[in-house]
UniProtKB/TrEMBL annotation:
Superkingdom of the source species: Bacteria
Native species: Cohnella herbarum
A Pfam family matched in the record: ROK
Sequence similarity: Belongs to the ROK (NagC/XylR) family.
Protein name: ROK family protein
Gene3D superfamilies referenced in this protein's UniProt entry, alphabetically: 3.30.420.40
Length: 319
């Protein structure tokens, strides 16, 4: 066993964390994502690792593994990575980074790594069956059962944001119409609010965003309006909870998780979202599920993905 580094690569920022062999976070390093070319991006990841080791005065020889989480699709058979918001197209990221750092490297989808981290050290700690969902720019989920992350055939398990419903009218970024993501992601919450205002809702949110400024409205503005007492803003979160429950209910019946961890920008709205979510999920489930199921926010903040990718690399490469 040895030290390991977890890296969370986002479209805007990269955060890397150095962990000791017991999985304790020793230090972090953050930088703006370089998106000019894959070579420069991989060079940046390698330099962040070097900086972290230097800061903690740890020799590179003691580094045992590096895990990377990024917003993209990783072909589980070939290891090739494609990420729309990064300069990566069918790119062998793990192999290239391994050559730069001279240590074993794993690369996985960022949401899977966030949920894996939460299952080990966060809200899922001590629980065997953890379903995690993130509601950020998009929507995705991951399933960790008895310590194992399940990717399914082709590594495609978890894309519940792209389940289409006939009563959702919006076209998704993926090209399909009616995807759940178009209403429950952060941009989906903003979209629901904009549509509600256009159909005549009045109140604080309507006053703050007259028609000519409506395109600028974000999910944070909806939350702020709710905090300030706007009834319509509260209804948007309630509606979002309802939509999410429509995929969580069958997921619970199929998987029987101990806990569902719901994170991302929308979930940070707190109880205005979680309370109706728990109620909607409960009302459609058999009591046997209801009695044991918890639906909670994550507890590691922005570090979930660091813990996840570092531990994932350690378990896959060191043991
Ligand atoms: Zn879609």
């Amino acid at each position: 066993m040895g030290y390991r580094i977890g890296i969370d690569v986002g479209g805007t920022n990269i955060v890397a964390g150095l962990f000791d062999e017991d999985g304790n976070l020793l230090g972090k390093s953050k930088a703006s994502t370089i998106k000019t070319s894959s070579a420069e991006l991989l060079g940046q990841l390698a330099s962040l690792c070097g900086e972290l080791l230097e800061e903690q005065q740890i020799s590179g020889r003691l580094l045992a593994a590096v895990g990377v989480g990024l917003p993209g699709f990783i072909n589980s058979e070939t290891g090739l990575v494609t990420a729309a918001n990064l300069p990566l197209q069918d790119n062998p990221v793990a192999e290239r980074l391994r050559r730069l750092l001279d240590v074993p490297v794993t690369v996985e989808n960022d949401v899977k790594m966030i949920v894996y981290g939460e299952s080990l050290r966060g809200s899922g700690q001590g629980l065997s069956h953890v379903l995690g969902v993130t509601l950020g720019t998009g929507m995705a989920s991951a399933w960790v059962s008895e310590g194992r992350l399940h990717g399914g055939s082709g590594g495609l398990a978890g894309e519940i944001g792209h389940i289409a419903f006939t009563d959702i009218p919006y076209v998704c970024g993926c090209g399909m119409r009616g995807c759940l993501e178009t209403v429950v992601s952060a941009s989906g919450v903003a979209r629901q609010a904009r549509d509600g205002l256009s159909s005549g809702w009045v109140g604080l949110l309507a006053d703050r965003f007259p028609p000519e400024q409506r395109e600028e409205l974000t999910s944070k503005d909806v939350w702020q309006a709710y905090q300030d007492g706007d009834a319509f803003a509260g209804q948007v979160f309630q509606r979002t909870a309802y939509w999410l429950s429509r995929v969580l209910v069958p997921s619970v019946a199929l998987l029987s998780p101990d806990v569902i961890i719901v994170g991302g920008g929308v979930a940070s709205a707190g109880e205005v979202f979680f309370e109706p979510l728990r109620a909607y999920v409960a009302e459609s489930l058999h009591p046997l599920y209801r009695e044991r199921l918890m639906i909670v926010p994550p507890s590691l903040g922005e570090d979930s993905g660091l813990y996840g990718s570092a531990e994932y690399a350690a378990k896959r490469l060191i043991v």
